[in-house]
Amino acid sequence: MINHLYEGLQVLESEAKPLSPIERLKAINGPLLSWYDSHARVLPWRETPEAYRVWISEIMLQQTRVEAVKPYYARFMEALPDVKALAEVEDERLMKLWEGLGYYNRARNLKKAAGVIISDYGGQVPETYEELLKLPGIGSYTAGAISSIAFGHPVPAVDGNVLRVLSRVLESHEDILKQSVKKHFEELLRETMPKERTSAFTQGMIEIGAIVCVPNGKPKCEECPLESLCLAERHGLLDSIPYKAPKKPRKIEEKTVLLICSSKKAAIRKRPDQGLLASLYEFPNTDHYLTADEVREYLEKEQGVTVESVEPLGNAKHIFSHVEWHMNGYLVQTDQIPGQYLAVERQELQNRYAIPNAFQAYYQKLMEVLA
Question: Which CATH code of 3.90.79.10, 2.40.30.170, 1.10.260.40, 2.40.50.140 fits the domain covering 251-370?
Fold first, then answer.
């Protein structure tokens, strides 16, 4: 059992005199650091934990799995290796680099923050938690991660992984989706985290939550250095902790997506500058389902083109945080691309225009058609 390796580092307690929350969190430091030293994954942003690299990786890792982030991170760092390059990149180029990661406001805020760093901080990422919080797109978790990992300041970084670990260790039944609960855990860690080796502590807490006290599935308690201190494990409450209040059902929107093609070109359009998927490019679509005959009528009567064929492409679904798109699609061959759309070639779609993941099922079909 792996936890036997940490017995010499663990604080023993009796049922008659259990540890207080502060004492319990102080007791995790030794086992956690020892475990992290020998179990930390090799990740590209850990090789040289400079502030810019940590910042980019932490923003990319929000809502996105580590394995999915790796190729995006490598491509991004090659194209935009420093703050100056990020501040000066053209918006369309930035969106193309981000294409597939989703949550595109993350990329927009990165560029905004880079501009502030150039103008207000001489091009150097600020190191204190308080100054980092002033930057667009940086909240308490990211500020804590950059400050502790890159600069060694003893400030907490509490994300979903850390919330899960702390809730179980302390047997907290509070709703981890509440900001007040997150703030409470931040205050506890600020008081109990080690003043030395803060980078390893912060990454160790995140790592435990990512690969041991896992977000989906049964936690691997037999591999956890915190097992003997974990009250939820001790009292058989792992299935009910952490607690999350039920979310409201997502709104469902029905759409018809049109892959309009003519002479090896396809139609795309730019979305509005505000709202969901702002300023990105998309395939023409309607806010309701259309039959094949209705598609033909819509394009010929309202768009003024001759429709040569309409091929059903089947259904697709994409889930956002608060809304679901339920889509049906058609491949439409026309005599010309309607004038209100951009007519683009395959290479332009691949290299220039960022198409959101919401249209991925139809994007792949279009790539085949335009090949």
Answer: 3.90.79.10
